[in-house]
Amino acid sequence: MNAMDLSGLVTAVATPFREDESIDHENLGSYVDYILSFDRVKGLLASGYSGEGPAMSRDETLSVAKTIIDATAGRVPVIVGVSPTSTKETIEFGKRLKDAGANALQINSPFYSILRRGFLQNEDVAVQFFDDLAEGIGLPMTVFQYPTASGLTYPPSTVSRLSENPLVIGFKEAVGMETYEADFQAVAGRKKLYADNNTYTLIAMLLYGSDGSMVGVGNVGLPHWVELNRLVDSGDQGAVVKFANEKIVPIINTFSTNLGQTPFSFIARVKEALVQMGHFKSGTTRRPEPPVTDDERRLIRATLEQVGLL
Questions:
Q1: How far is the C-alpha of 236 from the C-alpha of 288, rounded, in Å?
Q2: Cα–Cα distance for residue pair 166/140, rounded to 1 Å
Q3: How confident is the model over 123-171, as pLDDT tens digits?
């Protein structure tokens, strides 16, 4: 399992809810089948930020993981997003996910609290945390660099030391290009880097040498993300830029502009697109995520028509 290769396109699966905010497992299973109809999809990420993992209980996260694992039926690896609490509880939950058939875990920062962030000044704390998870759970892990959500970034020296952990298989990079370049040098080819950015920087990461992408907005227009992946693999940078400008950038601009600085919800916009394209029965998000407005619905439809998805 240490040799798991997620190079290419990994879809961060959105989680469908019914109007009462309960999980629609039937819709989730059919959506997974749709995603896996594209042979360039190399893995699925369950219960990440785009899957509204932070809005679910541990039992609900486990149930979503099981549905995705069952629907996947071994066709690709399933990674499950985990927001750590204590080391002890995170290991206990990780074992439950392992027993359910998860192939890997995406570990969000355990230093989300401002009272914990100072711990990173002692690099040994972060390294020990991942060492403890590796020993206690025994599953491959991707380390999530997401300063917009966690308020911090592991410095390159920490990234380098985490790369020495045999069960750390890669880093999901929701960062700016400067941090990405520093991490690229820090891993020195020992581990994979997966691009995850909601701006044009994503294209720069892919052209720079990313091993693939794990991006929530990739739920919107999966055929286009598959084609982008193919063009990146072809090495034709001109074709990548042309296609990205025509098909990907309008999606990014509509669904991710001002992420975290807007009164509207990113995941609600993504779900509305999935409803309009016929993949979700409902665009319900869990409160306090706000629903889309009528103006947003019209903007989303116009964008989907512009890029040929409707």
A1: 43
A2: 8
A3: 999 999 999 999 999 999 999 998 877 778 899 999 999 999 999 999 9
